[in-house]
């Protein structure tokens, strides 16, 4: 190994070691896997964000006896030093790289699938999509898979509804010890970490517009308020909109919020949450970031077409300049007169996941629970025959992860007495 590669491997291993030291639940599972080898002979293909916490999961699966091949699930979320360090480890191959093209991204997924896996782990369902569209010959060999994120679950449910899903998948994202903590506290902290380290600007006193009030949106809103921002939420779901208002935030359509926002963060998992009509209403200098899985929430193609100038003004920040008068004239096919009115819009990380493309992702303590769910779900798939379709993570896995996490935090909780258990189970007891 030459000096530069050794330096890369050393850097990656230091990051992995740091994450491992803050993931006690997954560490306990790794020790159990090492002793029991529940995944012996299994081939696991993964498409996840290749960074330090993911590497700890990969090492855990390999410790359980599996051969693991992994690539990225986002062109900008791979950390090259971690990827190289993983690729140097026994029974692990990694073909992810930072800032790959779309063609390279899908080529890497193909390389991972070339191992002819028994089990898959996905974040966004691109690997499963590839299997069903182009690598169908591999489907009969697969006994099941896991899906990490909300967007991926939505895609899989759509496949299932159409009768197109030809494998069993555990919805790891929907485990309580995943979405209630990873999506809310993980995204809440890591999205702002990515935004603040990228812009080096103050959040306090600004108006932050959050597109979507699911678990990720809740977390980002909570942290924005804690940083001193005025928070505005846009929603399509009346119940979530009501919840956001009761939580103390202003609620309005994006068409109205566009004119008052200083920072915009999308978290819906849908496309065109911020579109051309909204760009024209924005303040010059507005900052746009995305915390949803795919880079479709901000209409970047529309923004490019509207812009008279595009330049990189800081690492992970592109400034788009719109001449409002010219744009309005083109759209209305009229010759408006007036002074030149430029709007400068700053887009972070090309609209990709800001917490990973411009930061280090979720804190290790949160991913400890998410990846503990992944490891135990893979073991469950290996030991049980599941029918095709999307399945819930067994409740006992969820509760076991929560119990281990509490224990690692030196927290004890009450238990029901025999009398309380009988009272809970009885329907005759009244006043």
TrEMBL record:
Q: Give the PROSITE patterns listed for this entry.
A: ADOHCYASE_2
Q: Name one GO cellular component term.
A: cytosol
Q: What does this protein do?
A: Catalyzes the hydrolysis of S-inosyl-L-homocysteine (SIH) to L-homocysteine (Hcy) and inosine. Likely functions in a S-adenosyl-L-methionine (SAM) recycling pathway from S-adenosyl-L-homocysteine (SAH) produced from SAM-dependent methylation reactions. Can also catalyze the reverse reaction in vitro, i.e. the synthesis of SIH from Hcy and inosine.
Going by the entry's taxonomy, the superkingdom of the source organism is recorded as Archaea
- CC cofactor note: Binds 1 NAD(+) per subunit.
Primary location recorded for the protein, binned into one broad class: cytoplasm
Question: Where does this protein act, in terms of pathway?
Answer: Amino-acid biosynthesis; S-adenosyl-L-methionine biosynthesis
Q: Which principal EC class is assigned to this enzyme?
A: hydrolase
Please give the catalytic activity noted in the UniProt record: S-inosyl-L-homocysteine + H2O = L-homocysteine + inosine
State any GO BP term from the record. S-adenosylmethionine biosynthetic process
- Keyword entries, A-Z: Coiled coil, Cytoplasm, Hydrolase, NAD, One-carbon metabolism
Which parts of the sequence belong to the S-adenosyl-L-homocysteine hydrolase NAD binding domain? Answer: 183-361
Read off the Pfam families from this record: AdoHcyase, AdoHcyase_NAD
Report the CDD domains cross-referenced here. SAHH
Record keywords: Cytoplasm included? Answer: yes
Q: Which InterPro entries match?
A: Adenosylhomocyst_ase-like_sf, Adenosylhomocysteinase-like, Ado_hCys_hydrolase_NAD-bd, NAD(P)-bd_dom_sf, S-Ado-L-homoCys_hydrolase_CS
Originating species: Methanolapillus millepedarum
Q: In the UniProt entry for this protein, what further remark is given in the free-text comments?
A: SAH is a product of SAM methyltransferases and is known to be a feedback inhibitor of these enzymes. As a result of this inhibition, organisms have evolved efficient enzymes to metabolize SAH via different pathways. The pathway found in methanogens differs from the canonical pathway, it uses the deamination of S-adenosyl-L-homocysteine to form S-inosyl-L-homocysteine for the regeneration of SAM from S-adenosyl-L-homocysteine.
The record's GO molecular-function terms, alphabetically, read: adenosylhomocysteinase activity; trialkylsulfonium hydrolase activity
Hydrolase keyword on record:
yes
Kindly provide the name given to this protein in its UniProt entry: S-inosyl-L-homocysteine hydrolase
Q: Which co-factors does it depend on?
A: NAD(+)
Q: Which residues form a coiled coil?
A: 303-330
Task: State the compartments where it is located.
Answer: Cytoplasm
Detail which positions bind substrate. 123, 148, 178, 182
User: In which residues is NAD(+) bound?
Assistant: 149-151, 183, 212-219, 235, 270, 291-293, 355, 362
- EC id: 3.13.1.9
């Amino acid at each position: 190994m030459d000096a530069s590669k050794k330096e890369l491997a050393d850097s990656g291993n230091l990051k992995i070691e740091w994450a491992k030291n803050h993931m006690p639940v997954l560490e306990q599972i790794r020790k159990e896997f090492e002793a029991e080898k529940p995944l012996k002979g299994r081939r696991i293909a993964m498409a996840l964000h290749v960074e330090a916490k993911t590497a700890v999961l990969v090492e855990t699966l390999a410790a359980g006896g599996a051969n693991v091949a992994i690539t990225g699930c986002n062109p900008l979320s791979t950390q090259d030093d971690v990827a190289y360090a993983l690729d140097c480890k026994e029974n692990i191959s990694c073909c992810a790289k930072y800032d790959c093209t779309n063609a390279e991204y899908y080529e890497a997924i193909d390389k991972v699938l070339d191992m002819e896996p028994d089990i898959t782990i996905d974040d966004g369902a691109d690997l499963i999509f590839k299997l069903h569209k182009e690598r169908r010959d591999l489907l009969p060999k697969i006994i099941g898979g896991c899906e990490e994120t909300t967007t991926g679950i939505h895609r899989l449910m759509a496949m299932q509804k159409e009768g197109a899903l030809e494998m069993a998948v555990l919805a790891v994202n929907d485990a309580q010890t995943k979405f209630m903590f990873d999506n809310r506290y993980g995204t809440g902290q890591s999205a702002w970490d990515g935004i603040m380290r990228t812009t080096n600007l103050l959040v306090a006193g600004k108006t932050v517009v959050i597109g979507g009030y699911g678990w990720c949106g809740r977390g980002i809103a909570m942290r924005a308020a804690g940083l001193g921002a005025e928070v505005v939420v846009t929603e399509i779901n009346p119940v979530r909109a009501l919840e956001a208002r009761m939580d103390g935030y202003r609620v309005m359509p994006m068409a109205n919020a566009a004119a008052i926002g200083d920072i915009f963060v999308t978290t819906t998992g849908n496309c065109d949450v911020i579109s051309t009509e909204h760009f024209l209403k924005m303040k010059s200098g507005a900052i746009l970031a995305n915390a949803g899985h795919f880079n479709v929430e901000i209409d970047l193609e529309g923004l490019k077409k509207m812009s008279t100038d595009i330049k990189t003004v800081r690492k992970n920040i592109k400034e788009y300049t719109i001449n409002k008068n010219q744009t309005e004239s083109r759209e209305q096919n009229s010759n408006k007169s007036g002074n030149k009115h430029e709007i400068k819009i700053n887009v972070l990380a090309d609209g990709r996941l800001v917490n990973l493309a411009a930061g280090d992702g979720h804190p290790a303590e949160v991913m400890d629970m998410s990846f503990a769910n992944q490891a135990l779900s893979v073991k469950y798939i290996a030991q049980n025959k599941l029918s095709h379709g999307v399945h819930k993570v067994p409740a006992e896995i969820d509760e076991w992860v929560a119990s281990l996490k509490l224990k690692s935090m030196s927290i004890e909780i009450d238990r029901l007495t025999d009398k309380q258990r009988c009272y809970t189970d009885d329907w005759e007891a009244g006043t």
